Amino acid sequence: MRFLPASSKAGGGPLMAAGAMCSAQLAAAVSVGLSDRISVEDLTWLRLVWASIILVVFIRPWRTSFNRAALLTCLFLGLSSGAMTMLYMISITRLPLGTATALEFLGPLGVAMIRARGKTIWWAAAAAAGVVALTEPWQGGADLYGIVLALAAGLCWALYIVFTQRAGDDVAGLHALALSVPVATVVATFTVGISIFTRFPAPMTFYGLGIALLLPVAPYILELLALRRLTAGSFGILMSLQPAVAVMIGFVFLAQIPHFPALLGIVLVIAAGIGATRNGGHTRPTSDPSQESAHTGTVRPPVSGSSAMGSNHGD
């Protein structure tokens, strides 16, 4: 796949990045909206099953040779993305969509700050203040379990970025995705229990297919197209707006109206993400936009949501 300079087709890049974020957050909102008919955990498992089928059928990973190191890395990527997916999806049943997304976002934000090598102390302070505003500890009524789940999902996201960057070219791209997503599905199966095969409502089967198209299929395609039109830095800054998109989707589809402290916290986390992204280092051109995502840290586990953070770039 030939990498096109950012200046050549930049026009639609921001719209594609925005579409990827909206699609991912809409999938989360639909999952919450259907929770009275099927649990979010069971629906997430069903989405992962469909995503695995789609990826394996269309990508046919067996046609590509993987060395032992690449296979192990795909295993670790699948484990981290599967854990992140389930933790995040459970957290949004206990927290507003925007709050859970912003807390989860602290994982890749932490990676970005570490890789920026001391240039982001003020952004770290902004992120810490954002966490305080989001959790409102002075209220005493915060859902601590939901907060821990969202933060744990962020930690898994950070691990996913680290695994991807260390793996390099051997596991980037669609073929690695076709291996790691089925591994994530196995993680989800153990999370929801083997009885899932007999207990989920059959009429919900095709809801799972629809949500799988919303996430990961549509976001991943849109992100690859956006990365062909934008620099990694521009892409990372745009994707740092993910918590704001989550607030908007939560408001429109779930009637979640954030209080002022939560809004302030989300703004602080977004500002920290943009600041860390701008101070993150260099942009690394590549022949494959999916490689660009992996190298720079814009990558997010595709089964759980849209990419959203840069870690060692102007992204």
The largest pleated sheet is described as: none
Please indicate the count of domains. 1
Radius of gyration from CA coordinates: 18 Å
Structural class: mainly alpha
- Averaging pLDDT over every residue, what do you get? 83
Low-confidence stretches: 1-8, 281-287, 293-298, 306-315
Query: For the terminal residues, how far apart are their CA atoms?
Result: 21 Å
Q: Beta-strand percentage? A: under 5%
Tell me the overall shape: globular
Count up the helices: 14
H/E topology pattern = HHHHHHHHHHHHHH
What can you tell me about this protein's structure?
With about 325 residues, the protein is an all-alpha fold. The protein has one domain (about 10-295). It has 14 helices and no strands. It has helices spanning about 15-35, 40-60, 70-90, 95-105, 105-115, 120-135, 145-165, 175-190, 195-200, 205-225, 230-240, 240-255, 260-280, 290-295. Mean pLDDT is about 85; it is low at about 1-10, about 280-285, about 295-300 and about 305-315.
